[in-house]
Predict the structure.
Amino acid sequence: MSLRIALLGASGRMGQALLQAIAESDDYVLAGALVRPGSQVVGEPACDGTAFTDQPVSALDGAEVAIDFTLPEAFNSNLMACLEAGVPLVIGTTGLASPQMTRLRDVGRKLPVVWSPNMSVGVTLSFRLAEIAAKALGPEYDVEILDEHHRYKRDVPSGTALEFGERIAAARGRKLDDVAEFRGPGKRHQRHRGGIGFSAVRAGAEVGRHTVMFASESETISIRHRASHRGAFVDGALRAARWLEGRQPGLYAMADVLGL
């Protein structure tokens, strides 16, 4: 049976990719397409006989699940709209502040929600590989996390890079805030033992590439993932949306969706 999906952020890059996937699939139907207030596309057709709207109530009407790939500025209003409408939610928004994560956990007690900084199935598996490596190799191996994205991506480091860092730090029994080392102009210091370094590139049209390097004085192990097309995130988001059907309230991750 076709799943009725509301897209929040339907005019963005991920929103457009999801619209195309829904239009080409018999498994999903577009229930609503939300765009920013005053957008020029309001009232224009999206797909499946549905028009773009800047009204959350209209976008969520009749939806069985919502998928949100908006910016952090729209996060609070979208989250509250889904809670009021009782619509389960898949969230791929990155760059969330600590209070927003707290609100997300609160909503997860009342509504089934899947949140991930990266919806790719491959990245989810890479997270687990990084945890295994961190436990096996220990702090004598330096860690450097490099994320590469297109010129329009705003958050640095990426949410995915930070998630790698969080998981590696936790596997070593540490908090990321205590061991993170962010590379940038004017930051001249020697690497600290056990530190987790972050570097970033924002250029061109790179969809997303992440490299996690574990290096000792005698060897280097790298875990690398590259999304060659936004379809990697689309497939994961739709898989998560289907998985939420009939799910009890809770804040879930893509690892839950994949049964890891």
Observations:
- The chain has two domains: 3-119+230-258, 121-227.
- The domain at 3-119+230-258 is CATH 3.40.50.720 (Rossmann fold).
- The first strand starts at residue 3 and ends at 8.
- Residues 153 and 202 are 7 Å apart (CA to CA).
